[in-house]
Amino acid sequence: MPGPEEIKSSIDAFVEKSSKRLGEIWENPELAYEEVIAHDTLCAILEENGFQVTRHAHGLDTSFEASFGSRGRLMIFCAEYDALPDIGHACGHNLIGVASMTAFLALASVLKATGQPGRIKILGTPAEEHGGGKLDLLKAGAFDGADAALMSHPMPHHYYHDKHGSVGAAGARLVAKHSKLAEYKGRTAHPAANPWDGVNALDAVVAGYNNVSLMRQQMHPAQRVHCAIIDAPKRTNIIAGQTAVSWQCRSPKMDDLRKLTERLCSCLHAGALATGCQLDLKDESAYSDLLLNDTLCGLYQDHMARYSQNVLKADPEYIQASTDFGDVSYALPAIHAMFCIPVKEKGVVTHHWSFTEAAGTDVAFQICLTVGKCLALSAWDLLSDDRKYEAAVADWKNARCE
Ligand SMILES: [Zn+2]
Ligand SMILES: [Zn+2]
Fold first, then answer.
1. How far is CA 125 from CA 128, 143, 237, 399, in A?
2. How many angstroms from the chain centroid is the CA of residue 382?
3. pLDDT confidence band for 14 (50 / 70 / 90)
4. How far apart are CA 99 and CA 326, in angstroms?
5. Alpha carbon of 219 to those of 177, 257, 298, 317: distances in Å?
6. 397, exposed or middle or buried, with CB in 10 Å at 0-12, 13-18, 19+?
7. According to the CATH classification, is domain 176-286 in 3.90.25.10?
8. CA pair distance 28, 397, nearest whole angstrom
């Protein structure tokens, strides 16, 4: 087991050289698939630390990867860095990048110092908030041949502290999500002179929306349906000939999500039928629920305890949020730890300005360094201990069958 001192020296150098530039990722929030500054910054830091980096990896402009080690099992650290429109890094993905960079650099230095077999990779995973970069990367083979994948995500301090007296959770139950794009076609007409000749695509949106509102009364409390109208009429003197709505359904597991999505589609078809509009329903991204890995969660929890950080092994409740890492957790043993950062405004979860502010503080940055070290130590366990690795694989197989 590498001691804290072995890990500390590599991280100190990384922090000293790179913390200001990592802060620039927070100052320059970039949307899904457009994370150019984040991509270039993280690649440059890796290159300055002596790693050969593949920029624009796996056919994605803002993905990258760097590796270390030539034999043994392969661990992948996923670095996210995309932001949200208008509210910046309100999900704190800049911090995910910092924690995974820390983990990769720390473990590379340990492998170098010990000469132990083991391969590690840092993978830049763009577009978590919209589109699902990890789904693209899975399809492109970025996770092929890997033995485990690791990452972490920030949450507000009160989320775990108030309920559990802890500063995070090694295992989080994130729900499955399916996104659908509903495009309506009607026929334009003058709304006063000859409204009877129009087919109103705005009415189709309203009818579909109301049908979904009625459906909510018969939905399970753990399920969600929500939408954004993305193409709506801008003028009152034209009957709308075209509209579009992006819908998302969420449910703890994929099976129930499929049923909920079918019910959503019925609501939307009914709206189109009632108004005489054509409806074109397209699949957007679908994220699987997140599988827990008991072994990996236990390792991370123990390592956080070594740094005096009390985290739950697994949050017993579902978090009403989803991640494209869910699909990764079905493809190979994986951990998506949640860590807390201080937030000024109580009651705030994420996707709010208060969380954006919190994700840019030095204290949040420092917390990421500890989290990164513990991800590195958890990966080290799987690289160096056959029994722990086999237990993680057994957990993964069991969780997939549940
Ligand atoms: Zn988010
Ligand atoms: Zn997020």
1. 7, 11, 45, 24
2. 23
3. confident
4. 19
5. 15, 11, 34, 18
6. exposed
7. no
8. 40
pLDDT, residue 17, reads 77
* CATH number for the domain whose boundaries are 4-175+289-401: 3.40.630.10
* CA 290 to centroid of ligand 2, rounded, Å: 13
| Ligand nearest to C-alpha 350 | 1
Give per-residue pLDDT as tens, 363-380.
999 999 999 999 999 999
Sign of CA dihedral 363, 368, 373, 375: positive
DSSP labels, 357-384: HHTTSHHHHHHHHHHHHHHHHHHHHHHH
For residue 80, how far is its CA from the centre of ligand 2 (angstroms)? 9
Would you give the end-to-end CA distance of the chain in angstroms?
Answer: 33
Determine the Cα–Cα distance for residues 166 and 278; give it in Å rounded to an integer.
52
Two structure tokens written together for 248: 């998302």
Q: Give residue limits of the domains in the chain.
A: 4-175+289-401, 176-286
CA 129 / ligand 1 centre spacing (Å): 6
The tokens of 389 are what?
């690795």
pLDDT digits (tens, 9 = 90+) for 303-329: 999 999 999 999 999 999 999 999 999
Burial of 105 (0-12, 13-18, 19+ CB in 10 A): buried
Identify the nearest ligand to the CA of 130 by its number.
Answer: 1
324/318 Cα distance (integer angstroms): 16
